[in-house]
Amino acid sequence: MTDLSIEICGLRLRNPIILASGILGVTGAILTRLARDFGIGGLTSKSIGPEPRSGYLNPSVIQIDDGTCLNAVGLANPGIDEFVQEVPEIKHAGVPLIASIFGETEDQYAMMAIKVEKAGVDAVELNISCPHANVSSIGADPYLTASVVHKVKDAVKIPVLVKLNPNVTSIVDIARAAEKSGADAVVAINTMRGMAIDVETMKPILANKSGGVSGKALKPMAIKAVYDLYESIKIPIIGCGGIFTGLDIIEFMLAGAKAVQVGTAFLEGFGIIESMKQDMARYMERHSIKTLGELTGIAH
Ligand SMILES: Cc1cc2nc3c(=O)[nH]c(=O)nc-3n(C[C@H](O)[C@H](O)[C@H](O)COP(=O)(O)O)c2cc1C
Questions:
Q1: Which pTM does this prediction carry?
Q2: Distance 287 CA to ligand 1 centre (A)
Q3: What angle do CA 235, 238, 244 make, to 5 degrees?
Q4: How far, rounded to the nearest angstrom, does the alpha carbon of residue 229 sit from its chain's CA centroid?
Protein backbone atom coordinates (compact mmCIF):
# COMPACT_ATOMS: atom_id res chain seq x y z
CA MET A 1 0.00 0.00 0.00
CA THR A 2 1.38 3.41 -1.01
CA ASP A 3 1.39 5.96 1.80
CA LEU A 4 -0.97 8.79 0.74
CA SER A 5 -1.03 10.52 4.13
CA ILE A 6 -0.39 14.22 4.50
CA GLU A 7 -0.12 16.66 7.39
CA ILE A 8 -1.70 20.11 7.34
CA CYS A 9 -2.02 22.64 10.20
CA GLY A 10 -1.10 19.88 12.64
CA LEU A 11 -3.88 17.60 11.32
CA ARG A 12 -2.88 14.18 10.04
CA LEU A 13 -4.96 12.97 7.06
CA ARG A 14 -4.73 9.41 5.75
CA ASN A 15 -5.08 10.88 2.24
CA PRO A 16 -5.38 14.46 0.92
CA ILE A 17 -9.04 14.19 -0.18
CA ILE A 18 -11.35 16.36 1.94
CA LEU A 19 -15.09 16.72 1.34
CA ALA A 20 -15.78 20.33 0.22
CA SER A 21 -18.33 22.40 2.11
CA GLY A 22 -21.98 22.32 1.06
CA ILE A 23 -21.97 19.15 -1.00
CA LEU A 24 -23.54 16.87 1.60
CA GLY A 25 -25.58 18.14 4.54
CA VAL A 26 -24.40 17.89 8.10
CA THR A 27 -26.05 14.68 9.26
CA GLY A 28 -23.69 12.37 11.09
CA ALA A 29 -24.89 9.28 9.21
CA ILE A 30 -23.88 10.37 5.69
CA LEU A 31 -20.58 11.97 6.70
CA THR A 32 -19.59 8.95 8.77
CA ARG A 33 -20.35 6.66 5.83
CA LEU A 34 -18.12 8.71 3.56
CA ALA A 35 -15.23 8.17 5.95
CA ARG A 36 -15.89 4.57 6.99
CA ASP A 37 -17.09 2.99 3.75
CA PHE A 38 -15.45 5.17 1.13
CA GLY A 39 -12.15 6.18 2.74
CA ILE A 40 -12.22 9.97 2.46
CA GLY A 41 -9.32 11.75 4.21
CA GLY A 42 -11.27 14.57 5.89
CA LEU A 43 -14.69 16.20 6.10
CA THR A 44 -15.92 19.78 5.84
CA SER A 45 -19.43 20.55 7.03
CA LYS A 46 -21.93 22.53 5.02
CA SER A 47 -21.56 26.22 5.93
CA ILE A 48 -23.33 26.84 9.21
CA GLY A 49 -24.80 30.19 10.25
CA PRO A 50 -25.93 31.58 13.59
CA GLU A 51 -29.61 30.73 12.91
CA PRO A 52 -31.43 28.06 10.84
CA ARG A 53 -31.89 29.23 7.25
CA SER A 54 -34.00 27.69 4.47
CA GLY A 55 -32.04 29.06 1.51
CA TYR A 56 -33.35 29.86 -1.96
CA LEU A 57 -36.19 28.20 -3.85
CA ASN A 58 -35.58 25.45 -6.41
CA PRO A 59 -34.09 25.10 -8.91
CA SER A 60 -31.03 25.77 -6.76
CA VAL A 61 -28.51 23.34 -8.32
CA ILE A 62 -28.35 22.52 -12.04
CA GLN A 63 -25.86 20.69 -14.24
CA ILE A 64 -24.87 22.99 -17.11
CA ASP A 65 -22.36 20.73 -18.84
CA ASP A 66 -20.70 17.36 -18.25
CA GLY A 67 -19.28 17.66 -14.70
CA THR A 68 -20.02 21.38 -14.39
CA CYS A 69 -22.76 22.78 -12.15
CA LEU A 70 -24.32 26.09 -11.27
CA ASN A 71 -25.78 26.51 -7.79
CA ALA A 72 -27.46 29.09 -5.61
CA VAL A 73 -28.49 27.13 -2.55
CA GLY A 74 -28.48 30.28 -0.43
CA LEU A 75 -26.57 28.86 2.53
CA ALA A 76 -29.48 26.68 3.67
CA ASN A 77 -28.45 25.18 7.02
CA PRO A 78 -29.87 24.05 10.36
CA GLY A 79 -28.09 26.71 12.44
CA ILE A 80 -25.15 26.43 14.81
CA ASP A 81 -27.01 25.00 17.82
CA GLU A 82 -28.46 22.09 15.83
CA PHE A 83 -25.11 21.46 14.09
CA VAL A 84 -23.11 21.09 17.30
CA GLN A 85 -25.48 18.28 18.35
CA GLU A 86 -24.38 16.31 15.26
CA VAL A 87 -20.66 16.74 15.90
CA PRO A 88 -20.13 13.76 18.28
CA GLU A 89 -21.63 11.36 15.72
CA ILE A 90 -19.60 12.86 12.84
CA LYS A 91 -16.47 12.56 15.00
CA HIS A 92 -17.07 8.78 15.13
CA ALA A 93 -16.01 8.78 11.50
CA GLY A 94 -12.45 8.99 12.81
CA VAL A 95 -11.21 11.57 10.27
CA PRO A 96 -10.55 15.28 10.84
CA LEU A 97 -13.72 17.40 10.79
CA ILE A 98 -13.62 21.00 9.59
CA ALA A 99 -16.64 23.15 10.46
CA SER A 100 -17.45 25.76 7.82
CA ILE A 101 -19.13 28.82 9.31
CA PHE A 102 -20.57 32.10 8.05
CA GLY A 103 -22.01 35.15 9.77
CA GLU A 104 -22.86 38.76 9.24
CA THR A 105 -20.49 40.27 11.79
CA GLU A 106 -17.07 39.35 13.14
CA ASP A 107 -18.68 38.73 16.54
CA GLN A 108 -21.00 36.13 14.99
CA TYR A 109 -18.03 34.37 13.36
CA ALA A 110 -16.17 34.33 16.69
CA MET A 111 -19.22 33.10 18.63
CA MET A 112 -19.73 30.20 16.21
CA ALA A 113 -16.04 29.33 16.15
CA ILE A 114 -16.11 29.04 19.95
CA LYS A 115 -19.17 26.77 19.78
CA VAL A 116 -17.71 24.40 17.19
CA GLU A 117 -14.37 24.24 19.01
CA LYS A 118 -16.21 23.30 22.22
CA ALA A 119 -18.15 20.64 20.29
CA GLY A 120 -14.85 19.00 19.28
CA VAL A 121 -14.27 19.89 15.63
CA ASP A 122 -10.64 19.84 14.48
CA ALA A 123 -10.57 23.11 12.52
CA VAL A 124 -12.83 25.93 11.50
CA GLU A 125 -13.23 27.22 7.93
CA LEU A 126 -14.45 30.79 7.47
CA ASN A 127 -16.82 31.04 4.54
CA ILE A 128 -16.33 34.67 3.52
CA SER A 129 -16.68 33.81 -0.12
CA CYS A 130 -20.05 32.40 -1.17
CA PRO A 131 -20.69 34.26 -4.46
CA HIS A 132 -24.47 34.54 -4.07
CA ALA A 133 -24.74 35.67 -0.45
CA ASN A 134 -23.76 38.71 1.57
CA VAL A 135 -20.66 37.04 3.04
CA SER A 136 -18.89 37.41 -0.31
CA SER A 137 -18.45 41.11 0.46
CA ILE A 138 -16.17 40.18 3.38
CA GLY A 139 -14.00 37.99 1.18
CA ALA A 140 -13.76 40.74 -1.44
CA ASP A 141 -12.21 43.22 0.99
CA PRO A 142 -8.78 42.73 2.59
CA TYR A 143 -9.65 44.90 5.61
CA LEU A 144 -12.90 43.05 6.41
CA THR A 145 -11.13 39.71 5.85
CA ALA A 146 -8.32 40.69 8.21
CA SER A 147 -10.74 41.85 10.85
CA VAL A 148 -12.87 38.65 10.81
CA VAL A 149 -9.78 36.41 10.86
CA HIS A 150 -8.28 38.40 13.73
CA LYS A 151 -11.41 38.12 15.82
CA VAL A 152 -11.74 34.35 15.26
CA LYS A 153 -8.03 33.72 15.89
CA ASP A 154 -8.35 35.52 19.22
CA ALA A 155 -11.37 33.39 20.13
CA VAL A 156 -10.18 29.81 19.43
CA LYS A 157 -7.11 27.58 19.50
CA ILE A 158 -8.07 25.19 16.65
CA PRO A 159 -6.64 25.97 13.18
CA VAL A 160 -8.50 28.69 11.28
CA LEU A 161 -8.89 28.14 7.52
CA VAL A 162 -10.10 30.88 5.20
CA LYS A 163 -12.10 29.93 2.10
CA LEU A 164 -11.20 32.39 -0.63
CA ASN A 165 -13.53 34.13 -3.04
CA PRO A 166 -12.29 33.98 -6.66
CA ASN A 167 -14.67 36.79 -7.72
CA VAL A 168 -12.18 39.50 -6.78
CA THR A 169 -9.56 41.61 -8.53
CA SER A 170 -6.69 40.08 -6.54
CA ILE A 171 -7.17 36.85 -4.61
CA VAL A 172 -3.55 37.23 -3.47
CA ASP A 173 -4.30 40.51 -1.63
CA ILE A 174 -7.13 38.83 0.30
CA ALA A 175 -4.97 35.82 1.15
CA ARG A 176 -2.13 38.05 2.35
CA ALA A 177 -4.56 39.91 4.61
CA ALA A 178 -5.79 36.59 6.03
CA GLU A 179 -2.22 35.36 6.56
CA LYS A 180 -1.17 38.58 8.31
CA SER A 181 -4.11 38.23 10.69
CA GLY A 182 -3.02 34.74 11.68
CA ALA A 183 -4.97 32.41 9.35
CA ASP A 184 -3.48 28.91 9.48
CA ALA A 185 -4.36 27.97 5.88
CA VAL A 186 -6.43 29.10 2.90
CA VAL A 187 -8.85 27.10 0.77
CA ALA A 188 -8.84 28.10 -2.90
CA ILE A 189 -11.35 28.44 -4.41
CA ASN A 190 -15.08 28.86 -3.86
CA THR A 191 -17.36 28.92 -6.93
CA MET A 192 -17.21 31.63 -9.61
CA ARG A 193 -20.25 33.76 -10.32
CA GLY A 194 -22.32 32.54 -13.25
CA MET A 195 -25.75 32.34 -14.85
CA ALA A 196 -27.68 30.14 -17.29
CA ILE A 197 -30.77 31.17 -19.27
CA ASP A 198 -33.39 28.78 -20.63
CA VAL A 199 -33.82 29.79 -24.26
CA GLU A 200 -37.38 28.42 -24.41
CA THR A 201 -38.78 30.17 -21.32
CA MET A 202 -36.36 33.05 -21.97
CA LYS A 203 -35.63 33.34 -18.24
CA PRO A 204 -32.69 32.55 -15.92
CA ILE A 205 -32.94 28.92 -14.81
CA LEU A 206 -31.92 29.27 -11.15
CA ALA A 207 -34.62 30.60 -8.83
CA ASN A 208 -32.00 33.08 -7.56
CA LYS A 209 -31.18 33.92 -11.21
CA SER A 210 -27.40 33.85 -10.70
CA GLY A 211 -25.21 31.39 -8.82
CA GLY A 212 -21.75 29.88 -8.58
CA VAL A 213 -20.03 27.66 -11.16
CA SER A 214 -18.42 24.49 -9.79
CA GLY A 215 -16.87 21.36 -11.27
CA LYS A 216 -14.76 20.73 -14.35
CA ALA A 217 -15.08 24.24 -15.86
CA LEU A 218 -13.65 25.75 -12.66
CA LYS A 219 -10.38 23.78 -12.57
CA PRO A 220 -8.06 26.00 -14.68
CA MET A 221 -9.07 29.07 -12.65
CA ALA A 222 -8.54 27.20 -9.39
CA ILE A 223 -5.10 25.94 -10.50
CA LYS A 224 -4.05 29.48 -11.43
CA ALA A 225 -5.28 30.79 -8.06
CA VAL A 226 -3.32 28.12 -6.16
CA TYR A 227 -0.21 28.78 -8.30
CA ASP A 228 -0.35 32.54 -7.62
CA LEU A 229 -1.05 32.03 -3.92
CA TYR A 230 1.92 29.68 -3.55
CA GLU A 231 4.20 32.48 -4.77
CA SER A 232 2.70 35.01 -2.36
CA ILE A 233 1.91 33.40 1.00
CA LYS A 234 3.66 30.96 3.32
CA ILE A 235 0.68 29.31 5.01
CA PRO A 236 -0.58 26.04 3.48
CA ILE A 237 -3.07 26.05 0.60
CA ILE A 238 -5.93 23.58 0.20
CA GLY A 239 -6.86 23.40 -3.50
CA CYS A 240 -10.49 23.14 -4.59
CA GLY A 241 -12.33 23.32 -7.89
CA GLY A 242 -13.10 20.73 -10.53
CA ILE A 243 -11.17 17.79 -9.09
CA PHE A 244 -12.43 14.53 -10.63
CA THR A 245 -9.32 12.32 -10.72
CA GLY A 246 -6.17 11.58 -8.74
CA LEU A 247 -4.15 13.31 -11.45
CA ASP A 248 -6.23 16.46 -10.89
CA ILE A 249 -5.13 16.27 -7.24
CA ILE A 250 -1.48 15.89 -8.29
CA GLU A 251 -1.88 18.94 -10.56
CA PHE A 252 -3.15 21.02 -7.62
CA MET A 253 -0.19 19.84 -5.52
CA LEU A 254 2.31 20.73 -8.24
CA ALA A 255 0.71 24.21 -8.32
CA GLY A 256 1.20 24.55 -4.56
CA ALA A 257 -1.59 22.76 -2.66
CA LYS A 258 -0.91 20.49 0.31
CA ALA A 259 -4.38 18.95 0.34
CA VAL A 260 -7.59 19.29 -1.69
CA GLN A 261 -11.32 19.55 -1.29
CA VAL A 262 -13.70 17.77 -3.65
CA GLY A 263 -17.36 18.59 -4.25
CA THR A 264 -19.07 18.34 -7.61
CA ALA A 265 -17.24 15.11 -8.55
CA PHE A 266 -19.39 13.27 -6.01
CA LEU A 267 -22.23 13.56 -8.53
CA GLU A 268 -20.51 10.49 -9.99
CA GLY A 269 -20.79 8.60 -6.69
CA PHE A 270 -18.44 8.08 -3.77
CA GLY A 271 -16.55 5.25 -5.54
CA ILE A 272 -14.59 8.07 -7.19
CA ILE A 273 -12.52 8.40 -3.95
CA GLU A 274 -11.01 4.95 -4.44
CA SER A 275 -10.13 5.63 -8.07
CA MET A 276 -8.54 8.97 -7.09
CA LYS A 277 -6.39 7.13 -4.53
CA GLN A 278 -5.35 4.54 -7.10
CA ASP A 279 -4.42 7.27 -9.61
CA MET A 280 -2.22 8.98 -6.99
CA ALA A 281 -0.53 5.74 -5.94
CA ARG A 282 0.27 4.81 -9.56
CA TYR A 283 1.63 8.31 -10.23
CA MET A 284 3.87 8.15 -7.15
CA GLU A 285 5.22 4.79 -8.22
CA ARG A 286 5.85 6.00 -11.79
CA HIS A 287 7.77 9.07 -10.51
CA SER A 288 9.46 7.32 -7.54
CA ILE A 289 7.81 9.66 -5.05
CA LYS A 290 7.67 8.52 -1.45
CA THR A 291 5.34 11.13 0.09
CA LEU A 292 2.74 13.41 -1.48
CA GLY A 293 4.25 16.33 0.46
CA GLU A 294 7.24 16.24 -1.92
CA LEU A 295 5.00 17.41 -4.77
CA THR A 296 3.78 20.69 -3.30
CA GLY A 297 4.86 23.59 -5.48
CA ILE A 298 7.13 21.57 -7.82
CA ALA A 299 5.67 23.30 -10.91
CA HIS A 300 7.25 26.61 -9.85
C1 LIG B 1 -24.45 22.58 -4.27
C2 LIG B 1 -23.24 23.30 -3.73
C3 LIG B 1 -23.32 23.88 -2.46
C4 LIG B 1 -22.19 24.53 -1.93
N5 LIG B 1 -22.26 25.08 -0.68
C6 LIG B 1 -21.17 25.65 -0.13
C7 LIG B 1 -21.19 26.11 1.22
O8 LIG B 1 -22.19 25.98 1.95
N9 LIG B 1 -20.06 26.70 1.70
C10 LIG B 1 -18.90 26.84 0.96
O11 LIG B 1 -17.90 27.36 1.46
N12 LIG B 1 -18.84 26.36 -0.30
C13 LIG B 1 -19.94 25.78 -0.85
N14 LIG B 1 -19.87 25.28 -2.13
C15 LIG B 1 -18.61 25.41 -2.90
C16 LIG B 1 -17.77 24.13 -2.77
O17 LIG B 1 -17.39 23.89 -1.43
C18 LIG B 1 -16.51 24.24 -3.65
O19 LIG B 1 -15.74 25.35 -3.23
C20 LIG B 1 -16.84 24.42 -5.13
O21 LIG B 1 -17.97 23.66 -5.50
C22 LIG B 1 -15.66 24.04 -6.03
O23 LIG B 1 -15.30 22.69 -5.87
P24 LIG B 1 -15.86 21.51 -6.87
O25 LIG B 1 -15.60 21.98 -8.26
O26 LIG B 1 -15.07 20.29 -6.47
O27 LIG B 1 -17.31 21.37 -6.57
C28 LIG B 1 -20.99 24.62 -2.69
C29 LIG B 1 -20.93 24.01 -3.96
C30 LIG B 1 -22.03 23.36 -4.48
C31 LIG B 1 -21.91 22.71 -5.83
A1: 0.97
A2: 32
A3: 160
A4: 16
CB 160 within 8 A of CB 126: yes
Mutation probe of ligand 1 site: the residue of 18, 19, 23, 77 with most atoms within 8 A of C-beta: 23
Provide DSSP, 76-109: -B--HHHHHHHHHHHHTT-S-EEEEE--SSHHHH
Pocket of ligand 1 contains residue 240 by CB under 6 Å: yes
DSSP string, 173-225: HHHHHHHHTT-SEEEE--PEEEE-EETTTTEESBTTBEEEEEEGGGHHHHHHH
pLDDT, tens digit, for every residue of 121-160?
A: 999 999 997 666 666 678 899 999 999 999 999 999 999 9
State how far the Cα of 272 lies from the Cα of 274, in Å rounded to an integer. Answer: 5
* Residues 2 and 250: beta-carbon distance below 8 Å: no
Model confidence band, residue 24 (pLDDT cutoffs 50, 70, 90): confident
Complete domains list, the chain, with CATH: 6-295 (3.20.20.70)
Q: pLDDT digits over 94-105, tens only? A: 999 999 999 988
Residues 68, 264 contacting (CB under 8 angstroms)? yes
pLDDT in tens, 238-294: 999 999 999 999 999 999 999 999 999 998 899 999 999 999 999 999 999 999 999
